[in-house]
Amino acid sequence: MARSRRRLRRRPNLATRRGRGSRSRRPKRPGHGGLGSKIDSRSRKDVYGKKASKEGYPARSVYKLEEIQRRARILRKGDRVLDLGAAPGSWTLYTAKEIAPNGKVIGYDLKECTIALPKNAELRVGDVTELDESELGRFDVVLSDMAPNTSGKRDLDMYRSYELYVTALEIAERLLKPGGNFVGKIFQGAEFEEARAKTRALFEKVRIIKPKAVRSESYELFLVGLKRREIVAPPSGEEE
């Protein structure tokens, strides 16, 4: 008798269905851990750069000042404004619009800016430590977006940022009208509390603002001084 052959049922080859040697895994969504998260965070921030270009500003930093203005109302129509560390000009352009038509903004930077400006704005090349203060006169607002050239050494960079902040604050002390406002950039380091104390001594109210346009990994903050205290002169004839 012929033997009956038992037919074996073959199991499906999963490798051929899913790609040889691979396993079926759900792909990770961007921004959920690892390098993808960092890239996704940066791409979200790059939205500000694209927006700035579309709206005619040379840099994304304009949206830092825009948020500060929205939250603290530092600029008013008709103000005279001094912009320190003005290059590439985004803060100067934005300020000119906020204080128009009768306001005036003067920006200073070591680098030359070649952008087109409205009639109520001016950008000058110069060292902020060598300003002709008698020619400039008094201001309603002093802005500082100055930052050091970073060295990669965190403590050193933060101390240099503190030095620039204090330079801007001292200029504000000399040139701001009573009741005037101040905005200064600073890296949050060991000297931050000292910088805040110096600002509190000069203004009635001080706020700390980290705008959304600041990159999440940055130590950059802004101290906002509101209402410059009245300058009280010593009584005449008082001996020092």
Element string (H = helix, E = strand) = HHHEHEEHEHEHEE
Separation of the first and last Cα atoms: 131 Å
Proportion of strand residues: 15-25%
In CATH terms, the superfamily is Vaccinia Virus protein VP39
Assign the CATH topology: Rossmann fold
CATH class category label: Alpha Beta
Please compute the radius of gyration using only Cα atoms.
28 Å
- Count of helix runs: 7
Helix content: 25-40%
How many strand segments?
7
Structural domain count: 1
Descriptive terms for the model:
single chain, alpha/beta, 240 residues, seven-stranded mixed sheet, 7 helices
Describe this structure as you would to a colleague.
- This protein is of the alpha/beta class and 240 residues long.
- 35% of the residues lie in helices and 21% in strands.
- It has one domain (61-228): Rossmann fold.
- The protein has helices at 14-18, 34-55, 62-72, 90-99, 133-136, 154-175, 192-202; strands at 80-84, 104-109, 121-125, 139-144, 176-187, 203-209, 220-228.
- Helix 6 (154-175) runs parallel beside helix 7 (192-202).
- The longest helix is centred in the first third of the chain and has 22 residues, at 34-55.
- Residues 14-41 have low confidence and may be disordered.
In short:
By secondary structure, this protein is of the alpha/beta class.
Topology:
Blueprint: H1 14-18, H2 34-55, H3 62-72, E1 80-84, H4 90-99, E2 104-109, E3 121-125, H5 133-136, E4 139-144, H6 154-175, E5 176-187, H7 192-202, E6 203-209, E7 220-228
Parallel strand pairs: 1-2, 1-4, 2-3, 4-5
Antiparallel strand pairs: 5-7, 6-7
Helix pairs in contact: 6-7
